[in-house]
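Worked Example 4.2. Read the sequence first, then its structure tokens.
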Amino acid sequence: MGSTSFTNPYAIEVIRTKKNELVSGISNTEDLLDLLISNGVLQPDSRALMSSISAREEKNSKIEHDAILKAVSSGDLYLLQELLKGLDVNTALLSTDTLLHLAAEHGKEAIVYFLLRQGVKLNLKDREGRTALHRASGRGHTAVALALAKAGADIHATDLMSKTPLHLAAQNGHENTLLLNSGSSTNATEKEKKTPLHLAAMEGHTRAVSVLLAGKAKVGAKDMDGCSPLHYAARNGKERKSSQPVSSFHFLHHQTDSRKITFKVKLS
């Protein structure tokens, strides 16, 4: 048996009395090395070696991280399985994005199903407060969005702007990803009190508008500016008439009373 290199008689006492600083130093290795050297636990000439080891570990971690990103974005399930051995599928990345966020955003259905089998957490949020279902819905990846909803993802989850996955699907014109059959609320409002119908009308997504209307979306709902989806649709139609006369709204009839607005559109 070789002798221990931990021979300083005060080392254990230092560790005991300085435990808070040591715990803090775990996230900042340079400060930790300074603390150990100043208290005689580590010799100054050992600092270069320790720093070198730390730098090498960080480099290896970055390489592994980049490889995982590439495996997910390319849909390489075999490579991902190899890279994830011994890692937590919920914390394998060096950011607020999870593997499920990335797989959902890229529409990698096989990767999503693999992660679901691994017990991945469905409702973790990224820096914008968005879940994997937000990502899939915003990109129009219908199969992935349906898989997540079926697995129990929160279809009513809101991001930092209070937008649900349905808001993002409507805003980007992904009518097949609106998930109305999964129980999404067509009249949920975001921070500016806009419903998914407001957003679809603003962007001129007539097919999404039709789907939302069929799902009982309220045409008369008012946002914080007092505007209804009808206002935005009319404004959008005027703008497109002069510049982009494609897929614009054509109003056949609208009727307003104190209780109801009937709103009809056709697709062109």
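Now turn to a second chain, presented in exactly the same format:
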Amino acid sequence: MALHAVRPRTRTHRPRGGGPLAALVTFLLAAVTLLAMATSAGAAPGASGPATPEEIGKALRERPVYVDERARDRLGAADQRALSERIESAGEPVYVVVLPKDAAYHQRTVISDIREATGRAGVYGVLLGEQFGAASDTSLMPGDRARDLARETERRSGAVDAAALTGFADRAAASVGEGAGGTSGGAGRADTGGSGAVGTVLGVLLLGGMAAAVLFVGRGAVRARKEEAAELARVKATVDEDVTSYGEELDRLDFAPSAPGGASPEENEALVAEYGAALDAYEEAKAAMARVRTPRDVREVTSALEGGRFALATLRARRAGEPLPEHRAPCFFDPRHGPSAEDREWSPEGGAPRPVPVCAADAARLDDGEPPMARHVETAGGRRPYWEAGPAYGPWAGGFFGGYGTTVVSGMLIGTMLGSAMGAGTAWAGDGGGYGGDGFGGDGFGGGGFD
């Protein structure tokens, strides 16, 4: 069960008596309060497993420091309160999360998942087991600076403890640009004064408003659940196509690790290693697919497939005796085409030209004046090119292209429906400013991100 610091509730004094109307209002308020308590108890973070990004984000909107109970040895309750107060007094949007090592938290996406769930621009530091990372919205500081803060935190302290996290928070707050104030701050309280007549009118208005709100929220919730379920079904169908396509490509390799057939033992060892990486990516993608509960979850699947397709491309090059491919972004038109070979000018319908990474086959089609082989996905209006899909496909694209920088993602998608839907999401930076929030520092972590 994940815990977080809870603000003391302010006691609200109500006038006694008041007749049937006051009694009814009191009854309704009590019912709403009990309902809220029941809902909160049913959704307690970590009650049936690891806290979700949504639960962590909800906690961070209350206090800037979140600690999973299983990680209390890294930051105790008293230290958590002290760090929260220190961050709040600094007035900058800095958030610190302490989590245990858990398969539920994907190393490449955990920071961006938390940022997305919190819904607030900020500098996010995450201690995941023994590894510490940081990422930031580029409106506050460059992604490289966030990565450097993470590495500096580990270098200064070795084991990241309360003092190290406090140092990170102080340096992060000092690094936020002038005028980039935090989003914290309490809402103003209503004046409780006034005559008895005003109180009666307010009671009537409250009763009517509550009744209307119940009807509105109930209908809206049902509609929203249906829309979310339909969106998830469409995205899952698309990702299932991706996983199936990758598995079929593995089958077509006709590669036997026991007899790779290389020219030397070293080359054979390299072939087996690439094949192993490709198989591992397939298993990782399938496991991540089984965990998909929201469109956001598919980022783990497509991120694994992106790495796997590069391993396949490298394996093919080794077997053919060709130069090894550069680890470039996937083909923009269809990530299933594998790593891109070059950049080409392209413009969406009604949009401005921009360079996009393309595979050799699509480059040849463009040279011949033919349209590229674009990836079409399911939308509410039928199958469309993925860049014309809605926001549900943002994590899908983020998994494929997230490791290649904000400039790549935002530049490719600007002026498209997906780019507009992702909005500020493409400015979310971590390792070098990449969409998806790679920002873990320390030696052996792929230059700041987890590979």
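Notes for the reader: The beta strands are 2-4, 65-68, 94-99, 123-128, 131-137, 342-346, 354-358, 376-379, 382-385, 428-429. The radius of gyration is 26 Å.
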